[in-house]
Amino acid sequence: MDRKDLVKEIASYRCTMNRLSKGKSLTDPDVIKLRQGLDILIHKYYFEFSSTSVS
Which pTM was predicted? Predict the structure, then answer.
């Protein structure tokens, strides 16, 4: 997945999570599941596209 696609997917997850969390508790299993998916995408973005490198 390239950077542009990953950013779009992160944005989509964020919108969906925000929409879902307005009608549910932040501890609702559906909200938590979406948040976990978003966390995975954010970590993937960080590790694939971070400009800092470990020496």
Answer: 0.80
